[in-house]
Specification:
Blueprint (H helix, E strand, L loop, with lengths): L17 H11 L21 E5 L5 E5 L4 H19 L3 H23 L6 H8 L9 H19 L9 H12 L38 H20 L4 H15 L6 H15 L5 H11 L1 H16 L7 H40 L5 H13 L3 E2 H6 L1 H6 L5 H13 L3 E3 L4 E4 L13
Antiparallel strand pairs: 1-2, 3-5, 4-5
Helix pairs in contact: 1-12, 2-12, 3-4, 3-5, 3-10, 3-12, 5-6, 5-9, 6-9, 7-8, 8-9, 8-12, 9-10, 10-12, 11-12, 12-13, 13-16
């Protein structure tokens, strides 16, 4: 079972042709010029809506927006601009490949945050497995996360969908199915016996935190979070503010025995996906991994700021989230451009071969170098079985003439280390090239 295309159902896939690509290349692969200020959305107004809940044993718990509008204005505008630019890129041409890459890096990120040991390559290989035949725990974790992504992608497109407890329970069940834990049961909220104390965090990231222990308080606060979030929706608080706040308060409640971080990040992504953000909501998990110390620390610093009565205590967490969204959107936009360039290059190779401007041997060499995804040492190329098979009855002069022909047409380039790159890679590694 491979990686499906059900996480981003609104992105159409259609066959790619050189003509269709060329029709969009001039519009969408131009230098990165910010949109004119006139196209930017005005800064939305949102109140510091609060909800304080009296619990049975944990004490009062306050949900608040707690974000300084002026402090996040620039970041919101930059993310909005980046989103518009990304949505305007030729996504349909590369949707399948882009989704595969985003799912892999996202699952790797969110799994690694929680101690997963698979590499990114191993994660991709695990995602291609049939879940029914997987017994290995590390690969089971990867496939469970993907199942939760699929669930979110299917569910948030429903017309009357809203964030609710059954959805959260379903996410948790998907993420923890088949994962052994002494206390955790998929979809069942935590209720600590007196002999077991749940604590999260560590001194290196701002200290230990003791979330609600009593199951009645956990359920009460989770219901309150969902009610508060719906009030924010009704007040038209932007999703770029709501999503990270729900993520933050969900982790403060820590409602399950296991899987809270993974569930919290999927909840955040689901809210963004619902509002039209594609790919970036899941790519955000990789940003959190790359910035893992800041990510963990901010949960504690914001919580402590709120405990001290600081003004706008959640601003730093939201700014951090917006930084991640901007990074993810810009990375995705660049990747789309890169993938389109690759498609154009592949089409160009095919056309040159059909027009007999390159022979079958040259076409095979250029294709193999392109598929390598990076430089290929000339000595390595000459030792490759497929390359040797091309020239079983050919002279060294023929080999040299074929390579020189590819070089003269710009289809293959040499660098200073006598390595060969596909011509499309020149901009990526021009400092390596002799010319």
């Amino acid at each position: 079972m491979g990686i499906g295309l059900d996480i981003f159902p609104d992105i159409p896939s259609r066959p790619c042709s050189e003509t269709s690509l060329q029709s969009v290349i001039c519009d969408h692969l131009s230098p990165d010029i910010p949109p004119d200020n006139k196209t930017r959305s005005s800064m939305p107004e949102f109140a510091d809506h609060q909800l304080t809940v009296e619990t049975a044993r944990f004490g009062p718990f306050t949900f608040q927006v707690g974000v300084g509008a002026a402090a996040v204005e620039t970041a919101l505008l930059r993310v909005g601009d980046a989103h518009q630019r990304f949505q305007g890129s030729p996504l349909a041409q590369v949707a399948g490949q882009l989704e595969r890459e985003v799912v892999t890096t996202s699952v790797f990120g969110t799994n690694s945050i929680e101690g997963g040991t698979l590499s990114e390559q191993e994660t991709q290989e695990a995602l291609d497995l049939d879940p029914s035949g997987v017994q290995d725990l590390e690969r089971r974790r990867v496939l469970d996360i993907k199942a939760a992504y699929d669930l979110a992608g299917r569910t948030v497109t429903e017309a009357d969908w809203r964030l609710d407890l059954p959805f959260i329970r379903s996410l948790h069940a998907a993420i923890t199915t088949g994962i052994p834990h002494q206390h955790n049961q998929p979809g069942v909220l935590r209720d600590n016996p007196k002999t077991i104390v749940t604590q999260v965090g560590d001194q290196a990231h701002g200290g230990r935190y003791k979330p609600p222990q009593f199951g009645g308080d956990v359920r009460l606060l989770l219901d309150a979070l969902l009610r508060w979030h719906q009030e924010l929706v009704d007040l038209k608080v932007p999703v770029l503010i709501r999503a990270p706040l729900v993520h933050y308060y969900y982790e403060c409640i820590h409602p399950f025995w296991d899987g809270n971080g993974r569930v919290g990040r999927v909840i955040e992504a689901s809210l963004l996906l619902r509002e039209g953000f594609k790919y970036a909501p899941f790519a955000q998990a990789r940003f959190y991994l790359d910035q893992i110390d800041r990510y963990f620390t901010l949960f504690n610093t914001c919580r402590k700021a709120a405990d001290k009565g600081a003004a706008a205590p959640n601003t730093d967490f939201v700014l951090f989230f917006l930084e991640g969204m901007l990074t993810s959107l810009n990375t995705l936009h660049d990747r789309v451009n890169r993938l389109v360039h690759l498609l154009l290059f592949e089409n160009d190779l095919k056309r040159r071969h059909e027009e007999k401007r390159i022979n079958a041997r040259q076409y095979a060499i250029a294709t193999q170098i392109l598929q390598a995804g990076g430089p290929v040492a000339l000595t390595e190329l000459r030792r490759a079985p497929w390359y040797r098979a091309l020239y079983l009855e050919r002279t060294d002069k023929t080999k040299q003439r074929d390579l020189q022909g590819l070089r003269e047409q710009g289809l293959v380039v040499w660098d200073k280390g006598n390595r060969l790159w596909a011509g499309v890679s020149r901009l990526d590694a021009e400092h390596h090239f002799v010319s």
